[in-house]
Specification:
Radius of gyration: 24 Å
Distance between the termini: 80 Å
Number of helices: 5
Largest sheet: none
Shape: elongated
Number of strands: 0
Structural class: mainly alpha
Order of helices and strands: HHHHH
Strand content: under 5%
Oligomer: single chain
C-alpha cells in the first residue's frame, strides 16, 4: 500500500511540474520602427495625436500645444517642443515618455514614442 502511495505521489508531482513548466508566456515587445524607413508627419505622427492627445479635449486648441492636424506642426516648432540636436531631450518626447508628467492620460505607448523619436531624429519635417 505504501508503494502505491509513493508511485501516485511521484506521478502527481511529475504532472504538476510538467504543467507548471508549460505555463509560460512570451513577452510581447512593442513595435520598433525601422530606422531605414522615413517617418512622415501627416501619415505617421498626426494619427498618434488624433487618437491619444487631442481626442480627449486637451490638445485640441484648449491646452498648448494645439495638436490638431491643421495646427500641430507649427505649434510644436513655435512652442519649442522639438529639439533635432538632441531628439531624446525634445519636450514632445519627454512628455510622451512620462519624463515630464503623465501624458497621455492613458499612459505611455512605447510604439508611439519610438515613432515620434524617429521622426525627430530624421529632422522633424512637415512631410
Amino acid at each position: 500500500m505504501k508503494t502505491k502511495s509513493i508511485i501516485q505521489f511521484i506521478i502527481y508531482t511529475g504532472i504538476l511540474l510538467t504543467t507548471a513548466a508549460s505555463c509560460t508566456y512570451d513577452e510581447v515587445l512593442p513595435f520598433e520602427p525601422d530606422p531605414t524607413v522615413d517617418v512622415f508627419f501627416g501619415q505617421d505622427i498626426t494619427p498618434i495625436f488624433e487618437s491619444s492627445c487631442n481626442s480627449s479635449g486637451c490638445h485640441n486648441g484648449a491646452v498648448a500645444p494645439d495638436l490638431r492636424a491643421s495646427a500641430a506642426y507649427d505649434a510644436l516648432w513655435t512652442g519649442g517642443y522639438i529639439n533635432i540636436g538632441t531628439p531624446e531631450q525634445s519636450e514632445l518626447y519627454l512628455w510622451m515618455t512620462d519624463a515630464k508628467g503623465p501624458m497621455p492620460p492613458l499612459g505611455s505607448n512605447a510604439t508611439n514614442n519610438a515613432l515620434v523619436l524617429q521622426w525627430i531624429e530624421q529632422g522633424a519635417e512637415n512631410n
